[in-house]
Design brief:
The chain is α/β, with parallel strands linked by helices. Helix 9 crosses helix 10. The protein folds into 2 domains: 255 residues, Metallo-beta-lactamase, Chain A (4-Layer Sandwich), CATH 3.60.15.10; 35 residues, no CATH class. The chain has 10 helices and 18 strands. The strands form 4 sheets. It has a 7-stranded mixed beta sheet with strand order 6-5-4-3-2-1-18. Strand 14, helix 7 and strand 15 form a beta-alpha-beta unit. The termini are close together. Belongs to the RNase Z family. Its EC number is 3.1.26.11. Its cofactor is Zn(2+). InterPro entries: RibonucZ/Hydroxyglut_hydro, RNase_Z/BN.
């Protein structure tokens, strides 16, 4: 099976601590790297993870709070110092370019590559990136400013041929592409050979849902339904549910409730408030609602 790995570079909240750096992740999909948020310290964690800077081409920024984007200018500068030549595309709300462009002009003038900004509407669920292997769509969230999560979903591949049956029916080469697309084969005699006899079942596509800063929001459930892995912020425990509501964040129990209702396979918690010393409490609270829970930390590589 092709590679689909999540690397956690940072899973803390707004205040950096000795335990965690702010939000940043990298998805390695078939050796193409997709970065999700870029808090302070992200490029150092990138190096520690032994990922290859040259394979990074797309960055997705959920919103413009500093703990999700303060690392961008440093990373962009480092890529220039490394002699990068390929374009770097940043997907974000429209305001980011106006904030970052003056910094690029001052600190990164004359770089050997281009930074391209592609804005999205955080209030809509829509595809913002696609290639032959992956499709990325936005997940509208509920935070104190425009904010979107991201759903990474493999593109369904063509069907695999059953070689024995293809030879048995002596099917011409020109017909194979149609069969891979799901069509039946009509023999010269007029007999219809069903596609299911000529192909093997597809490997199910994998889905990763990233829900960054958000209050409890059931509207996202149809979008993330059945995801192999859901990362959902859990800034607070239920003892601070009132503060979670005020700051438009979630508790571990609320994250688990979303996971259960969306019938995801696994839930990863993160974006922990620095007020908590024992992160196992987050897992314990979530597991009272949804059993398959893991805690994000900067050493995790999760294979989907």
């Amino acid at each position: 099976m092709n590679k689909f790995e999540l690397h956690i570079l940072g899973c803390g909240s707004a205040l950096p601590t000795m335990k965690h750096v702010p939000s940043a992740q990298v998805l390695n999909i078939r050796e193409k790297l997709f970065m999700i948020d870029c808090g302070e310290g992200a490029q150092l964690e990138f190096r520690r993870s032994r990922l290859h800077f040259g394979r990074l081409s797309q960055i997705f920024i959920s919103h413009l709070h500093g703990d999700h984007c303060f690392g961008l200018i440093g990373l962009i500068s480092t890529l220039g110092l490394l002699g990068r030549t390929g374009d770097l595309t940043i997907h974000s709300v429209p305001e980011l370019e106006g904030i970052l462009r003056p910094q690029l002009d001052f600190f990164c003038s004359g770089m050997s590559y281009k930074v391209i900004f592609k804005p999205f509407d955080s209030s809509k669920n829509e595809v913002i990136y696609s290639d032959r292997s992956i499709r990325v769509s936005t997940i509208p969230l509920d935070h104190r400013m425009p904010c979107a999560g991201f759903l990474f979903e493999e593109v369904e591949a063509d069907l695999n041929l059953n070689g024995d049956m293809i030879r048995f029916y002596d099917i011409p080469l020109k017909e194979l592409s149609k069969i891979k697309k799901g069509e039946d084969y009509i023999m010269p005699s007029g007999e219809v050979v069903p596609n299911s006899r000529l192909t093997k079942p597809r490997i199910p596509v994998r889905k990763y849902a990233y829900c960054s800063d958000t209050a409890y929001k059931e509207d996202i459930i149809p979008i993330i339904k059945g995801a192999d892995l859901l990362y959902h912020e859990s800034t607070f425990l239920e003892d601070n549910a009132a503060r979670a509501a005020m700051t438009r964040h979630s508790t571990a129990r609320q994250a688990a409730t979303i996971a259960a209702k969306a019938q995801v396979k696994k839930l990863m918690l993160g974006h922990y408030s620095s007020r908590y010393d024992n992160e196992q409490d987050f897992a314990d609270e979530a597991k009272s609602v949804f059993k398959n829970v893991i805690l994000a930390n900067e050493t995790i590589v999760e294979k989907l």
